[in-house]
Write a structure and sequence with these properties.
It is a single chain. The protein has nine helices and ten strands. It is α/β, with parallel strands linked by helices. The protein has one domain: Muramoyl-pentapeptide Carboxypeptidase, domain 2. A four-stranded mixed β-sheet has the order 7-10-8-9, covered by helices on one side. It has a two-stranded antiparallel sheet with strand order 1-2. The longest helix has 20 residues. It is globular, with a radius of gyration of 20 Å. Bound molecules: zinc ion. Zinc ion binds next to strand 7.
Length: 330
């Protein structure tokens, strides 16, 4: 019979768990909802009655910006608290990539992210049997917080890549809104689903992690477990692959701050070692896999004043008259 832990042990475990969860939340990529379907005819958000009111959530302002800020490209702030000047769109079709959920208008990033994705996508057919990648959410045209989905993706350096190969045909608008990715995680969440996970998944994630531009990659803990078991040869890239909640249908690539950008705040470096240790086992502990729901008071949404000061300029710099709206159709 299992030993019943003493109440003080339970309390200590709960305390450790809540501290760990709090630390994770600080640097978290947030929930990435690649599976939410979109519409081929998205309705624009209604204008705000008082956009200048100090209490307006920043996500309501940045969520309404349809075009990039016509400024020199720059990331401002932190992945989960910032914005993007001079955002660039990833073309919806490329040699080895296609962008999904065009209705979300989240295929924007810092030019460094666009260059990374284009190069990475082109390498994918050489390192795997995939013809290319499907790209999910990146950032909004001016970055910033989003009305739905992510806590991060705010400064144009994060991108979600679906864990399925790009089909060999060009997807229609409808397919891009309705198609779903596939979870590679087994239903008990303790490991990958061997019927879905393939060596190609490992090869594609490895190719991304080996890029010197990539700061870290978020995957489900079950995926990290499989990678720990299956990676052969050089394992130095493994530390960049970090376990996180969700991330079973897609992986999340985060680039480091571009060189010379003083307003961009880097995340702590990844620890040394491959991460295939007790820190990984923690993700499979009962309290983490099956957290007991507890009532939490929702935090008030971040306002413009709580973002770096330069984000005000990013939000308010007008597009020149007659500048085109982003092209959504194929
Ligand atoms: Zn993400």
């Amino acid at each position: 019979m299992a030993k019943t832990p003493a109440p003080n042990e339970v309390r200590a475990f709960r305390r450790r768990l809540s501290i760990a969860l709090f630390m994770l939340a600080l640097a978290s990529p947030g929930v990435c909802q690649a599976q939410e379907k979109g519409s081929v005819d998205p309705k624009p958000l209604p204008p705000l009655a008082h956009p200048d009111a100090p209490t307006v959530p920043a996500k309501e302002l940045f969520g309404r910006a349809r075009t990039p800020a016509p400024l020199a490209a720059r990331t401002i702030g932190f992945y989960s608290r910032g914005c993007l000047a001079g955002g660039q769109a990833l073309p919806v079709n490329g040699q080895a990539w296609q962008v999904m959920r065009l209705s979300r208008n989240r295929n924007w990033g810092h030019p460094a992210l666009i260059a990374f994705l284009e190069n990475f996508a082109r390498r994918v057919p050489y390192v795997s049997h995939w013809p290319g990648i499907l790209v999910g959410d990146m950032s909004q045209p001016r970055g910033g917080p989003m009305i739905t989905g992510h806590a991060s993706h705010q400064i144009g350096l994060d991108a979600d890549i679906w864990l399925v190969p790009m089909p060999s045909h060009e997807l229609t608008r409808t397919e891009r809104e309705n198609m779903s990715s596939t979870s590679v995680v087994r239903s008990d969440r303790l490991d990958i689903d061997p019927a879905v996970w393939t060596p190609d998944h490992l090869a594609v994630i490895k190719e991304a992690a080996r890029s010197p531009d990539v700061q870290r990659i978020f995957v489900n803990a079950a995926i990290k477990k499989a990678i720990c078991r299956q990676a052969t040869g050089d394992r130095s890239w493994l530390t960049k692959v970090r376990p996180y909640f969700g991330h079973d249908y897609h992986f999340h690539v985060r680039l480091a701050c571009p060189a010379g950008e003083a307003a961009c705040r880097d995340q702590d470096p990844v620890p040394s070692g491959d991460g295939c240790d007790a820190s990984l086992a923690w993700w499979f502990s009962d309290g983490v896999l099956h957290p007991r729901p507890k009532p939490t008071k929702p935090k008030p949404p971040v306002t413009l004043a709580q973002l770096p000061t330069e984000c005000r300029m990013v939000l308010h710099t007008q597009q020149a008259a007659g500048a085109a709206e982003p092209v959504q159709a194929q």
